[in-house]
Fold this sequence. Notes:
two-stranded parallel ribbon, 1 helix, 5-stranded mixed sheet, 102 residues, globular, mainly beta
Amino acid sequence: MLLPKFIITSDGYFRIGMVSQHRDLLLPGDQCIGGGYYRFDYASNRLILDRFSYDFGKPRWHLIDTLKVPSSYRGLWIIYLTDERYEDDFIVSEELKIEYYD
């Protein structure tokens, strides 16, 4: 079953796609530092990330300074919704420098 999943790599690359396993988003030589699921909220122009990868765990945002995002997502507000009751959501677009690539 294909599901909307995302990962981040140790080099700061953000990858999303409809895949069976989070590992299907990895390229040769990549090291994953977490992942989860995504959905688009077109009404508020947001890319909403949530949950975690069973293989790689929750995204470890603190390990990167710049998130490299495909340019097709330019202009979207990126937010990671935590499942923790006492933890604030992580506003990726505010907390990290975003670098777009083709």
